């Protein structure tokens, strides 16, 4: 629940008060954060905090989350007959930069930390960019097997499959020496760890190759079973080697969908340094993360990511199923015609400090703030450098389409003019009309 701007107690009945961006502070989810030179969160983004689509019964994202939960609950049973994996889907999206980056061994100069790619409340606090921000604290609390779901926030391009707020689900599983080798003959003679080892593409320095191969097999087997459960027995799966700062070796799983290979999740053997820092240094683990929107768009044939935020009953009622396992294919609402306008401008000069004074994500964010859900796509059409002055200009095409009604030319023209004006006053560009 959110605080009111006067700092009164959270209201538990009725709609929560809206978050507030003040001159000196940002108030969200019952706390106030001082603003500084890193603050870049917008009112439109803060409006989404607390919506928790993944926890709204019968929402398509809730359906996917519940199906994944049901699979893990039924497939993995603990020694006493209880579910092996616990589920955490209510953790606050407001995290420290230490949680979001440092706890996951993301180096200080890593590009993923850039202000242009994230929503910062201030230099030390942000809206989480991935649910992995909570991995260390959950392992530290003594959990060996858990699923985690939540909303995550990233400044990004604008098209049918990208939105600044989306939802992730991830899983973590830790193993003791006995659990890894219990089914291996003479397994008691084997160890998770080895002294003086070297990091190779197959394993980390401290891990034994035997342990890593068994954990990797368990990870891939677990995820293949999950995707088969979601997509059906005839789904084709392949594994691609990749890199993440917090796992090694790391993999992406791709499924063949409508003739193309599509990446659906990332995973790997957890970096031992991360596990050690969470107080579980005698264990070895795996982790995976997937995007709920991506799965829902594929499984339910939802064509545009903006639809997940729709309040339109024609959309929502299609997912009110008596049984979460019942297949459903989204029947499109009427496809309303798009309207598009172009915007061209000269970019501002580089700042004296050499810091980039304009980034594409800044422009996308401004278009989102002004145009909101009316904007379907923004694409860079043309770039030009003046041969004499060296000044650079860019031209973007903005496609407008409402999900629930037909837009008028006049309505779009007014919004487009607001975007032109805001780009000049807020981003320091100079229009070319």
UniProtKB/TrEMBL annotation:
Entry's Gene Ontology molecular function annotations: ATP binding; phenylalanine-tRNA ligase activity; tRNA binding
Xref: InterPro entries: aa-tRNA-synth_II (IPR006195), aa-tRNA-synth_II/BPL/LPL (IPR045864), Fdx_antiC-bd (IPR005121), Fdx_antiC-bd_sf (IPR036690), Phe-tRNA-synth_IIc_mito (IPR004530), Phenylalanyl-tRNA_Synthase (IPR002319)
Domain Aminoacyl-transfer RNA synthetases class-II family profile: 62-322
Enzyme Commission code: 6.1.1.20
Any single GO BP term: phenylalanyl-tRNA aminoacylation
Top-level taxon in the UniProt lineage: Eukaryota
Catalytic activity: tRNA(Phe) + L-phenylalanine + ATP = L-phenylalanyl-tRNA(Phe) + AMP + diphosphate + H(+)
Region annotation (Disordered) ranges: 1-20
SMART domains reported in the protein's UniProt record: FDX-ACB
Pfam families: FDX-ACB, tRNA-synt_2d
SUPFAM superfamilies cross-referenced by the UniProt entry: Anticodon-binding domain of PheRS, Class II aaRS and biotin synthetases
Oligomeric form and interacting partners: Monomer.
This protein's name: Phenylalanine--tRNA ligase, mitochondrial
């Amino acid at each position: 629940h959110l605080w009111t701007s006067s700092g009164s107690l959270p209201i538990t009945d009725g709609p929560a008060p809206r978050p507030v961006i003040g001159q000196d502070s940002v108030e969200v989810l019952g706390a106030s954060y001082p603003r500084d030179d890193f603050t870049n969160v917008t009112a439109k983004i803060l409006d989404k905090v607390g919506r928790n689509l993944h926890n709204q019964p019968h929402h398509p994202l809730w359906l996917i989350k519940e199906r994944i939960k049901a699979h893990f609950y039924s497939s993995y049973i603990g020694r006493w007959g209880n579910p092996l994996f616990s589920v955490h889907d209510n953790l606050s999206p407001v995290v420290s930069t230490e949680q979001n980056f440092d706890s996951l061994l993301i180096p200080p100069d890593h590009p993923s930390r850039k202000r242009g790619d994230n929503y910062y409340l201030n230099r030390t606090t942000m809206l989480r960019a991935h649910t992995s921000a909570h991995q260390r604290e959950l392992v530290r609390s003594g959990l060996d097997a858990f699923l985690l779901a939540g909303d995550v926030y990233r400044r990004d391009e604008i098209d049918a499959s990208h939105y600044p707020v989306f939802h992730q689900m991830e899983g973590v599983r830790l193993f003791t020496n006995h659990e890894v080798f219990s089914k291996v003959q003479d397994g008691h003679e084997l160890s998770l760890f080895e002294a003086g080892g070297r990091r190779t593409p197959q394993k980390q320095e401290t891990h034994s190759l035997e342990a890593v191969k068994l954990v990797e097999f368990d990870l891939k087997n677990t995820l293949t079973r999950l995707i088969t459960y979601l997509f059906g027995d005839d789904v084709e799966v392949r594994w691609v080697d990749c890199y993440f700062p917090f796992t090694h070796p790391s993999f992406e799983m791709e499924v063949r969908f409508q003739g193309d290979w599509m990446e659906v999740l990332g995973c790997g053997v957890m970096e031992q340094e991360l596990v050690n820092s969470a107080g579980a240094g005698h264990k070895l683990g795996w982790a995976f993360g997937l995007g709920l929107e991506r799965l829902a768009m594929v499984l339910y044939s939802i064509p545009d990511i903006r639809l997940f935020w729709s309040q339109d009953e024609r959309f929502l009622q299609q997912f009110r199923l008596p049984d979460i396992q019942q297949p459903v294919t989204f029947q499109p609402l009427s496809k309303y015609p798009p309207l598009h306008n172009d915007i061209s401008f000269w970019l501002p000069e580089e700042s004296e400090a050499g810091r980039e004074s304009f980034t594409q994500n800044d422009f996308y964010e401004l278009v989102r703030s002004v145009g909101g859900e009316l904007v379907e796509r923004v694409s860079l059409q043309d770039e030009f450098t003046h041969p004499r002055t060296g000044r650079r200009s860019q031209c973007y095409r903005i496609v407008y389409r409402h999900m629930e009604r037909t837009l008028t030319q006049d309505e779009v023209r007014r919004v487009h003019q607001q975007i032109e004006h805001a780009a000049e006053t807020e981003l320091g560009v100079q229009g070319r009309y």
